[in-house]
Amino acid sequence: MHLVLSILAAEAGDMGPNPIAPETKELVVGATSFLVFLAVMRLWLVPKVRAGMQMRADMVRSDVESAEATTAAARAEVARYEAALAEVRAEAAARLDKARAKADAERQAKMSVVNARIAQQRADADRDVAAARSAAREQVASGVASVAARMAELAVGTRPDDATVRRAVEAVMASGVRS
Fold first, then answer.
1. SS3 sequence, 28-57?
2. 128-137 burial by CB neighbour count: b if 16+ within 10 A, else e?
3. CA distance 148 to 77
4. Contacts 24+ apart (CB under 8 A), 61-69
5. How many degrees, rounded to 5, is the angle at CA 145 between CA 143 and CA 149?
6. Per residue in 46-67, pLDDT tens?
7. Helices 162-175 and 46-156 sit at what angle, rounded to 10 degrees?
8. Are 123 and 155 in contact (CB under 8 A)?
9. 18 φ/ψ angles, rounded to the nearest 5 degrees
């Protein structure tokens, strides 16, 4: 192995200049070009890029502020809408309550009129029933008295006094005794 290394070292010394290493004038031209490009960039392009970036940042900031203002305006509009909606709902509830109260009052008034009419009709009917009962009672009492007087006349042979028969029939009818 030692032999291989010595052969390679002998061959490397005989090859001449290094093809990878740049020459001095290439270094000077490259450095000069780099410095010119750096100066152009620093003096002309970088300020334009910075101005463009600043303009873009200002435009973004302006758009954000505009969006925030629009959002705030929309929120305020929504709040006004909700307040108006709550007011309308409250007014509708008040109107509904008022209408219900009015309907209840009208219903109560009509019910009292109807109840008064029913009470009057009931009283009239009670009077008519009482009058009909009294008339029927009088007719029954009269019929019973005539039948009783006739039966007593047939049984005894003489007609009893009508007032006595009437009192006896009324006494029996008043006691509610049935035979």
1. HHHHHHHHHHHHHHHHHHHHHHHHHHHHHH
2. eeeeeeeeee
3. 101
4. none
5. 120
6. 999 999 999 999 999 999 999 9
7. 140
8. no
9. -75, 125
Q: Can you read off the two tokens belonging to residue 3? A: 């032999």
Tokens standing for 114? Answer: 């109807």
Q: Return the amino acid letter for 147.
A: V
Gap between the terminal Cα atoms of the chain? 162
∠ CA 107-113-118, nearest 5°, is 120
Cβ-Cβ contacts under 8 Å for 53 (sequence gap 6 or more): none
Tokens of 74: 């929309």
* Structure tokens given for 155: 């049984």
- For residue 11, give both structure tokens: 């061959």
Span 117-171, pLDDT tens digits: 999 999 999 999 988 888 888 888 888 888 888 888 788 888 888 888 888 888 8
5-19, 89-103, 163-177: the lowest-pLDDT one = 5-19
